[in-house]
Amino acid sequence: MTVKTTRLAALVLPIAALAGLSGAAQAEEWTPTRNIEFIAPANPGGGWDTLVRTTSRVIQEEGLAERSFAAINVPGGGGAVAWAQIARDSGNPHKLFATSPPIILVPLAGTSRYDHTDFTPIARLITDYSIVLVPADSEYQDLNDLFAALEADPGLSVGGGSAPGSMDHISIAGLASAAGLNAAEVNYIPFSGGGEAMTSLMGGHVEAVITGAGEAAGQLGEGSQLRALGVSAPERMGGPLAEVPTYQEQGIDYTFDIWRGVMGTPDMPAEAVAYYEDLFARMLETDGWQQARDQLGWLDAYQDSEAFGDFLDAQQAQFSGVLGDLGLLGD
Amino acid sequence: MEALNNLMYGFGIALEPMNIAYVFFGVFAGTIIGMLPGLGPISALALMIPITFAMEPSSGLILMAGVYYGAIFGGSTSSILLNAPGVAGTVATSFDGYPMAKQGMAGKALAIAAYASFIGGTISIVFLMLVAPLLSKVAVSFGPAEYFALMVLGLTAVVSLSDKSLVKGLIAAVVGVMISIMGIDLQTGTERFTFGSAHLLDGIDFLVVALGIFALAEVFVMLLRGGGGKEQPRNAIGSLRLTRGEVKEIAGPIGRSSVLGFFTGVLPGAGATIGSFLGYSMEKRLAKDGDTFGKGNIKGVAAPESANNAACTGSFVPLLTLGVPGSGTTAVLLGALLVMGVTPGPMMLEQRPDVFWGVIASMYIGNIFLLVLNLPLIPLIARILDLPRPLLLSLILIFCMIGVYGMSFSVFDLLLLLGFGLLGLGMRLFGFPAAPLILALILGNIMEESMRRALQISGGDWMIFVEKPISLVLLVIALLSLALPLARKALQRALA
Fold this sequence. Notes:
The complex is a heterodimer. Chain A is of the alpha/beta class. Chain A is built from eleven helices and ten strands. Chain A folds into two domains: 195 residues, Bordetella uptake gene, domain 1 (D-Maltodextrin-Binding Protein, domain 2, 3-Layer(aba) Sandwich), CATH 3.40.190; 123 residues, Periplasmic binding protein-like II (D-Maltodextrin-Binding Protein, domain 2), CATH 3.40.190. In chain A, α1 crosses α9. Chain B has one domain. Chain B is built from 23 helices and two strands.
């Protein structure tokens, strides 16, 4: 029952958020009355945790909020445990959580009862892209070489840092189908992290690896054992990745975003949403944030609550298509 | 010579007054964190990232590395005194450390643990310094097939860990493997043994099982025996001194386990827990008095303690030379380094020699600090055993619950802890050994994943396990270590 009502509410919410925005500008502005619980639905050390800790620190150091943000880790089920907890806390304006594609992929795989429509989108903050790597001495010079080889021998293995049906797999499957291959035929080997996948590539145990560009950036450049064939960005990335061509440059019309953002409890009041939207927008402008962002290899990709909500719906449609091709849609 | 020059350069950095202070603070905090269950090195390091953000990268890494190896160093205390391992890497230490404490030799067990940790740590730093760049090749040569073979070799230790009945040992090991594969299967995304509960999707944390089966079961056993606090011996700490004979006895195990532990640590994904178990079972098999392992043999404390500290240092090899984290803890360290603007990897030695050599030099200093800090503390900490029994039991109980709850903030995990405590009690009452279950729990999951990954790469061809030389050698050793004792027994029977 509760699920149904919150889904309905989520449809109404973006409109309410808009109304809230204009209202907030005029009169009664909402501010938090106690400390904000900012949840990373995973163990310390991962992407969500880094986002939560970095944003909390910047907000505090730059003095952007009167109340502090307390980073809390709620690991389990690839996020499902935390989502189930947050979903019970409907309307609480003092609880936020970090989010990224798993909020869509995990429910699609059938292992979370709650999906993005159960929560209130606050803002999309940053994005990373996928990168395809091969050993430095590999015979493949570009993506087309690699895909020609994969087409000739579908047994060739492509490693990734996450489980089948999650980010890295979706990313390479979508790329393969854009390149004219059958997505389900990619021999995807899941490792328990991008680091492990890259180590395996250095040892020549797999043919190629797909992982996050930010994670791989440190592995590229002079003296490296690995070489990048392409990134999933719409245009070239900066820093050590400036040399890496995009998929589109190589004639494969496909991009893939590993975005990260912030969501709140179901039915969060519109004034609170407006407050946080504005807070995160201001945070992105600070020097402290820009310094941390560059060091972590992130790119700003701000969207406000409404745009973020639409974006999430579009992502869900796209991902469920790829998962369907792979035969990995849950019930 | 070059290594010596580099080391001198490193000491120049590590001996700066502020850096000495950071090493001291790091290892001190690490020891305390290691003693308390729940706040493991991973969460402790995650908490430190904001502190290190503004520091010089070398100072930041010196501090965080100190916390990491300090936690492994301190983790043995609760294993030995309370049978309640605070860190996964020190579970094997409780096998003989706790029996020693019960026999009134807590002081000696803690002292051996401290010496073994110190020597294991120091030997492995020498290795790290001399051969780290070469070893990065070893680390990458281990693919799925090789990991599978290594895990099979590790699992053969079940035979030596099952003291009375091999069948009961094997049953315990099978249960351990079953617990290890609970949760979402990484290869297919299928849920296994989750009973539809979201709490079980990630499987069961190792510490919940270990604390339940060891510490909580021990509390239940003591409660069943009853008898208040009467037979609790006073002055239960005993002497810290080792006789010359004892020093001789543990020298070999410490040396061997340090080397073994270091190499285990170098392999991404293996780490301190597997290193300590391999060290323990290797020494049990080599020892003439192997049958007294598990009953308070000093070698049974020395081996895992030197191995786990050596493995902890070894895990810096893939981090510093390849830029890939070998464990959850080093993943946090990697993240922290990136934030500080240092990119670990093949180029780090040239680009940031100050960080590389500064950290290595600081590890020598940190290990000395740890020894000097821990030895005088032993008599103080060990007095916990002087508490009247009702108090001691409640203390262990609280200790376990805080440990589990502090890790996940989940009441569900507390219920699991209770369940595993009851399972442990049942196993004790019916003579099932707990060690094989724990070993299988640690190795089972990695073994299965590596096997399936290897087969997926080979297209289902099982020959991949014997075509790869490292894998073949490991499997042959595993086979021999199973066959030889059986052959010896058969021979003895034929002769008798």
